[in-house]
Automatic annotation (TrEMBL):
<feature type="domain" description="Endoribonuclease YicC-like C-terminal">
    <location>
        <begin position="170"/>
        <end position="281"/>
    </location>
</feature>
<dbReference type="GO" id="GO:0016787">
    <property type="term" value="F:hydrolase activity"/>
</dbReference>
<protein>
    <submittedName>
        <fullName>YicC-like family, N-terminal region</fullName>
    </submittedName>
</protein>
<dbReference type="Pfam" id="PF03755">
    <property type="entry name" value="YicC-like_N"/>
</dbReference>
<keyword id="KW-0378">Hydrolase</keyword>
<dbReference type="InterPro" id="IPR005229">
    <property type="entry name" value="YicC/YloC-like"/>
</dbReference>
<dbReference type="GO" id="GO:0004521">
    <property type="term" value="F:RNA endonuclease activity"/>
</dbReference>
<keyword id="KW-0255">Endonuclease</keyword>
<keyword id="KW-0540">Nuclease</keyword>
<dbReference type="Pfam" id="PF08340">
    <property type="entry name" value="YicC-like_C"/>
</dbReference>
<comment type="similarity">
    <text>Belongs to the YicC/YloC family.</text>
</comment>
<dbReference type="InterPro" id="IPR013551">
    <property type="entry name" value="YicC-like_C"/>
</dbReference>
<dbReference type="InterPro" id="IPR013527">
    <property type="entry name" value="YicC-like_N"/>
</dbReference>
<feature type="domain" description="Endoribonuclease YicC-like N-terminal">
    <location>
        <begin position="1"/>
        <end position="148"/>
    </location>
</feature>
Length: 282
């Protein structure tokens, strides 16, 4: 599911900003960006995020902004002076300012003093990380509520279409019988009524959609039951939607009735919209 969470922490010498973004994905695809000073915590952080978020293409970023007056980069004076002396030997009358400009651009002219990892500081950061994750989960819950309402409305529509199909089913059987009888009368043949009834029953058994309606009803009820669960059920809902599709397709192939086929098409349309949105479910 999509989501976004953000949290900030002001420390004495730096400002920490946490951002967590999530897009739809069948599995967990996690990308973590951390400053070098916190890299040793990356594995622990990955495990924590995987446990909390479960699925999605997740981007986790920890930004560190230095707010203190002191900087971690220092001029490496002995190296810079050595470069200047070497350049003076090559160009004796060179301007000192120009030599300085060139020297500070040379390798190792600046040295970065890396501070030791502060476990106490990290404990404060962990609290903010959890805030950002919870913020994103709240975003997901809000989106999930909207999806649930949409699912329930579309399932209700399919139930309504099933009732319409049931009403047309009786009319369809009468229509099939009349059409078969009319075709035989046009051939001007003597009809054995008993044999005719046997053939009609055999033919109608192939067109009977009772089993499909029963199974589809069970799938719809199971979908709603799963929807009301508390665990992550996106994959299960996807599988149930596939089974619903099989029953609707079979119903359409057996219908042999123009109006009924129109209703089946409407059922397929509702189901396709359900399948699209199931991809957004955790």
């Amino acid at each position: 599911m999509t989501g976004f969470g953000k949290a900030c922490l002001q420390l004495p010498t730096k400002k920490i900003t946490i951002e967590v973004k999530s897009l739809n994905s069948k599995n967990l695809d996690l990308n973590v960006r951390l400053p070098l000073s916190y890299r040793e915590k990356e594995l622990t952080l990955r495990n924590q995020i995987a446990l909390e978020l479960e699925r999605g293409k997740v981007d986790f970023s920890l930004f560190c902004e230095i707010t203190a007056e002191e900087t971690s980069s220092k001029i490496n004076a002995p190296i810079v002076l050595a470069y200047i002396e070497q350049m003076k030997a090559i160009i004796p009358n060179a301007d000192a300012t120009e030599l300085m400009k060139m020297a500070v651009r040379m390798p190792d002219a600046l040295k970065v003093e890396r501070s030791d990892f502060d476990e106490t500081e990290w404990k404060e950061i962990e609290v903010v990380i959890q805030e950002a994750i919870q913020s994103m989960k709240a975003f997901r819950v809000s989106e999930g509520k909207s999806l649930e309402n949409d699912f329930r409305a579309r399932i209700a529509n399919i139930f309504t279409y099933m009732d319409q199909v049931s009403l047309l089913d009786k009319e369809r059987i009468v229509s099939v019988k009349e059409r078969l009888r009319t075709n035989l009368l046009e051939l001007q043949l003597n009809i054995d009524e008993n044999r005719f009834e046997q053939e009609v029953i055999y033919y109608l058994e192939k067109l009977d959609i009772t089993e499909e309606k029963v199974r589809l009803s069970k799938h719809l009820e199971y979908f709603l039951e799963t929807l009301g669960g508390t665990e992550a059920n996106g994959r299960k809902l996807g599988f149930i939607a596939q089974e619903m599709g099989r029953e609707i397709n079979t119903m359409g192939s057996k219908s042999n009735h123009a109006e009924m086929q129109k209703i089946v098409v409407k059922m397929k349309d509702e189901l396709e919209k359900i399948k699209e949105q199931v991809l957004n479910v955790l």
